[in-house]
Amino acid sequence: MTPWIIVGGGRMGRAFAAVAQREGIDVRSLPGRAEGAPRRPAAPVLWILAVTDAALETVCERITPALTAGDVVVHLAGARGLDALSAIRASGAAVGALHPLAAVATLDPPGNLRGAAFLVEGDAAAIAAAHAVAEACGGTLLVAGESVDRDAYHAGAALVASGAVAIAQGAQLLFARAVRPEPAEAARRAAVASLLRSVARNIEALGADGALASPLLRNDTATVERHLRAMAFDGTVRGLYRAVLARVVVPLEAAGAVMPETLRRVRALLAGEDPEGPSPRT
Length: 282
Hints:
CATH superfamily of the largest domain: NAD(P)-binding Rossmann-like Domain
Order of helices and strands: EHEEHEHEEHEHHHHH
Number of helices: 9
Number of domains: 2
Shape: elongated
Strand order of the largest sheet: 2-1-3-4-5-6-7
CATH class of the largest domain: Alpha Beta
Strand content: 5-15%
Radius of gyration: 23 Å
């Protein structure tokens, strides 16, 4: 495979370096803030710019003198498009925006990109390089053939990456409150992670609408009311639950999957007509 040069030693840069090392790819890692043009192999190179959005133009200026025919340069910033690489494209190198749809939270050990999906837009050579990257990760590639609304796309990615964490935080609070003696931190983490993994498998197999597991599917609003009562001790957790309820009921209503009385009661709960007071602590 084409050698990689990874610019940036943060979490994502180290995750890509770990993939290259595992797959036997010739890889060099460079700090994002180094001065001057970096040394490089004589053969064509895939440059992976794993730096902050704000640093992209500066890094492009630094590496441009080192580029040669056949090089491909991609950046990993989900909120930035090909405009960030305009200086690179003017030099004659192929360019692409390659965004890993994977949450990488650790430096040591490096984050895991196994099975990750990637979004790519760019020149034909960059798309070919992205296919090779996805294959090295055992993942999948989404090719944007025309354009990407970066604000909407990045918001969707952030909604999952941050939203799932916020929901997991709320679930851990509820588990700690519900079970006596209080479970150890490791046990609470394992419990929430188990649920998230099962949801991810269901979404992959059935799609988001088909993956829903909810009391609403059996028109059981009494359980939803008890849930809200149990969350009265923390307004942020209760607000998360209400936001989730507001979203999941939309396709259920569109499909006629719930009774009119269920919809009426859900709307009342969303309007704040919650049962009064917290449920007893077990």
